[in-house]
Amino acid sequence: DGGITQSPKYLFRKEGQNVTLSCEQNLNHDAMYWYRQDPGQGLRLIYYSQIVNDFQKGDIAEGYSVSREKKESFPLTVTSAQKNPTAFYLCASGTSGFTDTQYFGPGTRLTVL
Amino acid sequence: DQQVKQNSPSLSVQEGRISILNCDYTNSMFDYFLWYKKYPAEGPTFLISISSIKDKNEDGRFTVFLNKSAKHLSLHIVPSQPGDSAVYFCAASGGSSNTGKLIFGQGTTLQVKP
Question: Where does residue A13 rank: exposed (0-12), middle (13-18), buried (19+ CB within 10 A)?
Fold first, then answer.
């Protein structure tokens, strides 16, 4: 089955710890994206990558880091510098074309204790 | 600066009737618009899109209308079904960067009552 997988579904971490969220796609998409959703708000872009070994900051990149070593994978690290990390994190991929439709994974709910 | 706005946080309609969800944008350079549907604790699902060269696009029960002069788009669902109850996000792309980045609205929660 083609699609986007995110793991884990739920993640708990203690304050001050870094944590890495996984995102894998087998859609052969060039572009991958990380969003954050908070209650009552839309999706806000954290980081995106249009090609392997290259990525750009989105609107709320502070306290986050990413890597894109393989086309299929785009892991997101939430660092201890992120002041308000509890949120629902969504990964997406797309063709990076003019009329790019992004397809989303199931999301990871991160809770900082 | 909210470039894409969905001014109605919620909408309730009766099963079988029409649901109309609205979205306004401020950036005249946006040239591609999408609607996504989202259930709680799940990722958004792509519904329908429209490019700026069109003013209407239809897919089954879903129709999206684009009014470029008013910078407004709407999603019509006819007939509405209880399974349509979800949060609907509009999104836009284009502009100076044209990198495929999407700008999302805040979402509208649709409730379809049986």
Answer: middle
pLDDT above 70: percentage of residues in chain B: 94
pLDDT at B96 over 60: no
Q: By CB neighbour count within 10 A (0-12 exposed, 13-18 middle, 19+ buried), where does A95 fall?
A: middle
Mutate which of B21, B51, B102 to disrupt the A interface (most A C-beta within 10 Å)?
B102
Beta bridge partners of A31: A94
Which residues are registered as beta bridge partners of B22?
A: B74
Of B43, B49, B98, the CB nearest to A101: B49
Instruction: Select from A60, A66, A71 the least CA-distant residue to A18.
Output: A66
User: Cα–Cα distance between B114 and B112 in angstroms, integer?
Assistant: 7
Q: Band the pLDDT of B2: cuts 50, 70, 90.
A: confident
Question: Per-residue pLDDT tens for A27-57?
Answer: 999 999 999 999 878 899 999 999 999 999 9
Rounded Cα distance between A4 and A72, Å, is: 9
CA nearest A92 in B: which residue?
A: B43
A40/B106 CB distance under 8 A: yes
* Chain A 30-69, residues with CB within 8 Å of chain B CB atoms: 31, 33, 35, 40-45, 48, 50, 56, 58
B108: its two tokens: 């509208």
